[in-house]
Design brief:
The protein is mainly alpha-helical and about 475 residues long. The chain contains 19 helices and no strands.
């Protein structure tokens, strides 16, 4: 069907609401982590127990990304986004007043479900409301907003803890969510009507997918490295459940993830590339602090400032990257962005050994703009190729692949770094050993990015004319 052209009022108000939604969800990811030591001290949890405050949010957000996108397609993306913001905001209040660690973890899981909506559906809503020739710029803006939330979260969290205690971190998210809902709820933001797929909600598919993602996430996350999780059993269960999910979707009359959608090159390739890039980007967060502290002997404040270089570069380059996508095309800019990331990854592998701190900063500053260009181009290309009635589930698929990449990078690449350092505890490794471990890790990410570039250059094939099952 023909989509109604968006009004200028819709663009201003709607895009602002979408950007604020992404910002608040990103703050929910990064701001809470800085509070974990304080929460452990005040609520009486161990380190492993307190880590669940972060893990519950990530696990819930990952496991429900595809489901909330599917719901958006069935019920209306604006309606589901408003519901997700409401869930996130209510959960933020529950976090702030939680009297025990167990209740805080439960509230964080609920908040993660709301965050899944707030991270996934803005991409689909942007494609619904923005003219195709401006889509890249809006995707760049959303990427910049996510970078702002990620970069400012720790600083904001530290300030709020100092002034009002850890509950303030969660309390401040509620009015921000309310503001996003008020902007999104204005009548002029409902001027786009897209076709919706018919059918019932695929409950069996949702349960199988959620189980597969949860088992995989639990199998590879840090709380299992001390032997408390049967990692091999969890991963085997994830693989078996994923096979069952695929079999279910191939037979379901109304699947949550139509397999013909995955037959579209732009969608399937975009999800794979998103997973690879998510894995690579997480490496800088989990490996960098150990190298900066152990090899370069930086104090915590200097580590924080150094780690902010990448997000600042992302913020500065996000909108420019989106405009480049609009001008030169999504597919070519996807390859250019990945190639730029290879340069940054190689710099991180080689320059710190020669230049020390300037070499590390150079690598992160080179990596970030390539990431922003890839993100804007990949999201634009994937959603531009998706039928209007399936944009929600496609946005959820992008969120799912990104989050799976994050948890994979946090586990696999961290394990590679630790094993290469050659010490029982990474903190006890020598400066030379940590430098070798950094080089090995980022040579591995470089190889992954080379594979991603080669995949992006594969020739196109005709897309299916319909996306049903």
């Amino acid at each position: 069907m023909t989509e109604a052209p968006p009004s200028p009022s819709l663009l201003r108000t709607g895009v602002g609401a979408l950007a604020l939604s992404v910002l608040v969800a990103s703050l929910g990811t990064s701001a809470a982590n800085v509070a974990l030591p304080t929460i452990a001290a005040e609520l009486g949890g161990t380190f492993a127990q307190t880590q669940w405050v972060a893990l519950a949010y990530l696990l819930a957000m990952t496991a429900t990304s595809l489901t909330v996108g599917h719901l958006g397609d069935l019920l209306g993306r604006r309606r589901v986004l408003l519901g997700g913001i409401a869930v996130f905001s209510v959960a933020a209040v529950l976090c702030a007043i939680a009297p025990t660690l167990e209740m805080l973890v439960a509230a964080r899981a609920l908040q993660g479900i709301g965050a899944a909506v707030m991270m996934a559906l803005p991409l689909a809503r942007a494609r619904d409301t923005v003219p195709p020739e401006r889509l890249g710029a809006i995707m760049g803006l959303l990427g910049t907003t996510a970078a702002v939330g990620t970069a400012s979260g720790p600083a904001l969290g530290g300030l709020l803890i100092t002034v009002a205690g850890w509950p303030a971190i969660f309390a401040v998210m509620a009015p921000l969510g309310l503001l996003a809902a008020l902007l999104l709820g204005r009548p002029e933001t409902e001027s786009v009507h897209t076709a919706r797929p018919r059918g019932r909600f695929d409950i069996a598919g949702v349960l199988l997918l959620t189980a597969a993602v949860a088992l995989y996430t639990l199998g590879v996350t840090d709380p299992g490295t001390d032997g408390s999780w049967p990692t091999g059993l969890l991963l085997a269960g994830a693989a078996a459940t994923a096979v069952l999910f695929g079999a279910r979707e191939s037979r379901a009359a109304h699947p949550i993830l139509p397999l013909s959608l995955l037959k579209m090159r732009a969608v399937s390739l975009g999800a794979v590339l998103n997973l690879i890039v998510g894995t690579v980007m997480m490496s800088t967060l989990v490996v960098g602090p150990f190298f900066l502290a152990g090899a370069l002997h930086l104090p915590p404040a200097a580590i924080g400032a150094t780690m902010a270089a990448g997000p600042v570069a992302s913020i500065l380059s996000g909108v420019v990257a989106g405009r480049a996508v609009d001008r030169f095309g999504a597919r070519g800019m996807t390859t250019v962005g990945l190639t730029a990331m290879i340069a940054g990854s190689l710099a991180l592998a080689l320059l710190p050994a020669a230049w020390g701190l300037p070499g590390y900063i150079t690598g992160t500053v080179l990596l970030a703009p390539g990431y922003q260009l890839f993100l804007a181009a990949n999201n634009t290309g994937v959603l531009g190729a998706t039928p209007p009635e399936r944009r929600g589930v496609t946005s959820g698929l992008l969120g799912l692949s990104r989050n799976l990449g994050l948890v994979t990078g946090a586990s696999v690449l961290a394990a590679l770094f630790a094993s290469t350092a050659g010490a029982t505890e990474v903190t006890a490794a020598s400066a030379d050993a940590l430098t070798v471990a950094l080089r090995t890790t980022f040579l591995a990410t470089t190889a992954m990015l080379v594979v991603a570039v080669l995949l992006s250059l594969l020739p196109s094939r005709p897309n299916p004319q319909t996306v049903g099952r």
